[in-house]
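Field reference: sequence -> structure
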Amino acid sequence: MTLGVAGVAWIAAFGALTVGAFALSGAAVAGFAFAAGAAGGAGVVIWCLVQLLNWPPARLALFRDRLLVIQGRHEMRAVWGHMESVTLTEPHSWPNVRVTDRLTIQLKDEPALTFKPAVVGLEPSACRDLILRLRDDPKLRSRLPEFDSLRDLAISPVVAGELIEPRL
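Structure field:
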């Protein structure tokens, strides 16, 4: 974002210098040089926009009481205490276990949560190890921020997720 804003400022500055140079008689060569500078700024802005469009399509958030995966407008939550297993294998593939790039979190009395850690920018095995460590270590989880559902739900409504506690 900073580089994109700098590129826009670069375009504005060199654009103004280009207009000023063409307004003066005999400074057309300088005007072309300034126009080339403005074109370079436009190239930087276009590159920044392409990078912004390639932003990770999903987000992984870790809170004291839950893990949150947001893919587009789909929100998936998993409470740490409800996690039974965290694996990189296909569900129900026993005895022919096959390792995949999808992380599967089996939950008590809820459907499994699956996502690709690479989509959020993490290596699958490292993401699995992190989630297992946080699931098993409440002291480590206490260093994470609290989930403020009222503020977060006001900003982005829940499309899908778990039921509220206590269960209705």
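Note: The first strand starts at residue 58 and ends at 62.
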